[in-house]
């Protein structure tokens, strides 16, 4: 895929969707910001690319809401980084968001599958 196709296929995430995806990524374990962005990119087959300009404000917002907590640790490359972990409150929020997402997917699917009369 060339850069023009990559740009055209890039998906901009709405704030609530980004929060849900970050919380989902943290279900896989504690990660630093780069690790979260990398995991989302890999799990989405390179379709979802979360830029740092969106990721870190979202992480700070999630932390203020007590959906995630953070702690400073050393990475595998011996660099100090802030690692994020989903909280019990975050898991509850993720479950609610996931159900709303399923409802929205079904509703959009129903509209898109309607035949023209």
Which descriptors would you attach to this protein?
single chain, Arc Repressor Mutant, subunit A, elongated, alpha+beta, 3-stranded antiparallel β-sheet
CATH architecture: Orthogonal Bundle
Helix-strand sequence: HHEHHEEH
Q: Which oligomerization state do the chains in this entry correspond to? A: single chain
Q: Class, according to the CATH hierarchy?
A: Mainly Alpha
CATH topology: Arc Repressor Mutant, subunit A
User: What overall form do the CA principal axes indicate?
Assistant: elongated
- Helix share of residues? 55-70%
How confident is the prediction overall: mean pLDDT? 89
Radius of gyration, in Å, reads 16 Å
* Superfamily (CATH H level) name: Winged helix-like DNA-binding domain superfamily/Winged helix DNA-binding domain
Describe the model.
The chain is α+β, with helices and mostly antiparallel strands and 117 residues long. It has one domain (3-113): Winged helix-like DNA-binding domain superfamily/Winged helix DNA-binding domain (Arc Repressor Mutant, subunit A), CATH 1.10.10.10. 60% of the residues lie in helices and 14% in strands. It has five helices and three strands; from the N terminus they run ααβααββα. It has helices at residues 3-9, 15-27, 33-43, 52-64, 88-113, and strands at residues 31-32, 68-74, 80-86. It has a three-stranded antiparallel beta sheet. α2 crosses α3 (33-43), α2 packs across α4 and α2 packs across α5. The longest helix is centred in the last third of the chain and has 26 residues, at 88-113. It is elongated, with a radius of gyration of 16 Å. The relative contact order is 0.15. Residues 7-11 have low confidence and may be disordered.
């Amino acid at each position: 895929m060339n850069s023009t196709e990559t740009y055209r296929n890039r998906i901009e995430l709405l704030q609530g969707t980004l929060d849900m995806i970050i919380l989902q990524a943290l279900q896989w374990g504690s990660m630093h910001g780069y690790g979260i962005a990398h995991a989302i990119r890999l799990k989405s087959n390179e379709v979802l690319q979360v830029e740092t300009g969106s990721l870190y404000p979202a992480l700070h917002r999630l932390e203020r809401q007590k959906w995630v907590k953070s702690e400073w640790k050393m990475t595998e490359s011996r660099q100090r980084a802030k690692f994020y972990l989903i909280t019990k409150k975050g898991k509850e929020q993720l479950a609610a968001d996931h159900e709303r997402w399923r409802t929205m997917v079904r509703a959009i699917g129903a509209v898109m599958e309607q035949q023209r009369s």
